[in-house]
Hypoxanthine phosphoribosyltransferase (Roseivivax isoporae LMG 25204), 181 residues
Amino acid sequence: MTTRPYVIDEMISAKSIAARIEALSREIAQEFADTEQLVVVGLLRGSFVFIADLVRELRLPVEVDFLEVSSYGNAMESSREVRILKDLRSAIEGRDVLVVEDIVDTGHTLSHVVRLLTSRNPRKLRTIALLDKPSRREADIKADWTGFEIPDEFVVGYGIDYAQANRNLPHIGKVRFTDGG
Ligand SMILES: O=P(O)(O)OC[C@H]1O[C@H](OP(=O)(O)OP(=O)(O)O)[C@H](O)[C@@H]1O
Ligand SMILES: Nc1nc2[nH]cnc2c(=O)[nH]1
């Protein structure tokens, strides 16, 4: 796929992300203090970096599982149709579940996933998103924990891509197009 020329301006440093994850992990550990084992569900692909850092800060017994959903493909606009590309390996009925999302934008992805997983009757289901763009919301949903609220900018890095590139940036950056279009 061809993309327009762009540069990436740093928006949230790797250090700020690490500090925020430490604080959020303490809150999550309190919320699930009585858990036998927390199933931490990462939404692929964007959350793979966030979930890796988050579970290493969580002082709880955890199992890690992944769900792959896609709504954007390589586009910058949500298709608003959420497709399940890979389901969980584990059953979650009667279990504690934390859904880990990289970014909530229109909210269609998270809202679809919460509906799907709630229908499987977990004991408790909570959600966390590293980033939230509240000004873009179309579905009525907010994650139980949010790392950072951000303005309406197209962001990349720390797991998040633009046309599959930039997932390996250690910080969050915003995409700035340089062709004036
Ligand atoms: O709130 P929404 O408007 O639904 O957008 C948020 C979703 O969009 C991105 O996923 P994408 O479909 O790009 O897949 P990826 O995680 O594999 O990059 C992102 O990772 C979120 O899951
Ligand atoms: N890469 C990327 N994907 C998104 N999906 C929803 N919002 C965004 C965004 O800002 N950047």
